[in-house]
Amino acid sequence: MAGRPFLFVPGPTNVPDRILRAMHRAQLDHRSSAFPTLTRSVLDRLPKVFGLTGGECFVFACSGTGIWEAALTNSISTGDKLLAVRFGQFSTLFVNYARAMGYEVDVIDAPWGDTIPVDKLEAALVADKAHEYKGVLTVHNETATGVTADIGLVRAALDRAKHPALLFVDGISSIGSLEFKADEWGVDFAIAGSQKGFMMPAGLGIVAVSAKARPFVDNAKSARAYFDMRPMRVQNAAGSFPYTPALSHLFGLEEALNMMEEEGLPNVYARHHYLASGARAAIHAWGLKLCAVRPELYSNTVSAVMTPEGHDAAKTIDIAFRRYELSLGAGLGELGGRAFRIGHLGDLNPLMLAGALSGVEMALNDSGIPVELGKGVGAAMTYWRDNASKV
Ligand code: PLP
User: Stretch 51-74: mean pLDDT, rounded?
Assistant: First the structure.
């Protein structure tokens, strides 16, 4: 089909032409005297996106999942205990990976569509008198359910319990799109990937590490090699890497940071709220339900939409893709076949999203879920017109 395909999964997201152009260039010698300028330009500006001062950011060539491993092996010793909250597919996978790495993980479960049960978390921390939990694993934005958790409440629970555990926050589908406050929330390891809010192709994992976590990085006893932050820190200080960095991606990341700075981070967050609100107006107008159970949980980067009983969401997704070149996110885990997801993050504006919502309307009808054509898109347009002055 002619024209650009519509990519509305919640990552990878649309890569702006500016970033593509920045990446499309001759390679540099990463041992040359010119290279440190690029490294430092990226590493010095990244912490702001995480709301971090005083700590340090690391960039590894991997997807976001690799940073789960990087964060844990660099701070927790094999066999140590962790406490995790599971409220969707990605928080479930975080637990599975931690266990696969040899950590003992106690889990607090919440129904999918709901958020972190902070009271239960606090009770578990209070009960841990011996401070056996060395870390708490959480996800800021559950991409599977379209729920944004309040990490400030998690920090408050840790503080009330006077528990010293390190706080790990997966912000893979939030950082760069939703405000993230690593300092204020006392996040020790904030985890991001390049292919979502950073508007890049997949391939870089990024982690922001608090100053408090530094001695843990120095002393943790877990097997670590590729992801070892100690040689990375030494080399990064001089503007280099212990091994060949993903050069094209670093050029792209530098341009992504330029774009974020030009727009201004508060404007980036406001734009995501504005776009998401339009998408939600459409979903409500279709008479469909979000997986997120309360409005205050609604994610501004992804909406997980439940299909009516008896309708296979996979069919709607496939029709959208085959007939209209619109990619929607699949229902994951227990939401398989019951939900589709609309990603509304990254390099995006209302008209792009209106196009996607039109495609959803057609695919819903084609797959046997009748909605009045134009009703959802109309509701989104009304929202965007009424609120245009707010962005
Ligand atoms: N965590 C969250 C919240 C995610 O949304 C994703 C991917 O969508 C991941 C982890 C896995 O990241 P990656 O696919 O970059 O390894």
Answer: 98
d(CA 241, CA 232): 6
Per-residue H/E/C for the chain:
CCCCCEEECCCCCCCCHHHHHHHCCCCCCCCCCCHHHHHHHHHHHHHHHHCCCCCEEEEEECCHHHHHHHHHHCCCCCCCEEEEEECCHHHHHHHHHHHHCCCEEEEEECCECECCCHHHHHHHHHHCCCCCEEEEEEECEECCCCEECCHHHHHHHHHHCCCCCEEEEECCCCECCECCCCCCCCCCEEEEECCCCCCCCCCEEEEEECCCCHHHHHHCCCCCCCCCHHHHHHHHHCCCCCCCCCHHHHHHHHHHHHHHHHHCHHHHHHHHHHHHHHHHHHHHHCCCEECCCCHHHECCCEEEEECCCCCCHHHHHHHHHHHHCEEEEECCHHHCCCEEEEECCCCCCHHHHHHHHHHHHHHHHHCCCCCCCCHHHHHHHHHHHHCHHHC
Closest CA to 236 of 47, 30, 58, 383: 58
Dihedral through CA 173, CA 177, CA 182, CA 184, nearest 10?
-130
Cα-to-centroid distance, 143 and ligand 1 (Å): 8
- pLDDT at position 389 over 90: no
The domains of the chain, with CATH numbers, are: 18-262 (3.40.640.10), 264-390 (3.90.1150.10)
Cis before 117? omega within 30: no
pLDDT tens-digit readout, 259-280: 999 999 999 999 999 999 999 9
Q: Which atom of ligand 1 is nearest to the CA of 202?
A: 15
Of 143, 168, 206, 299, the one to substitute when testing ligand 1's pocket (max ligand atoms within 8 A of C-beta) is 143
Mutate to test the pocket of ligand 1, among 8, 9, 90, 204 (most ligand atoms within 8 A of CB): 90
Q: How many angstroms is it from 62 CA to the middle of ligand 1? A: 11
What's the pLDDT tens digit per position in 306-336? 999 999 999 999 999 999 999 999 999 999 9
pLDDT for the residue numbered 390: 79
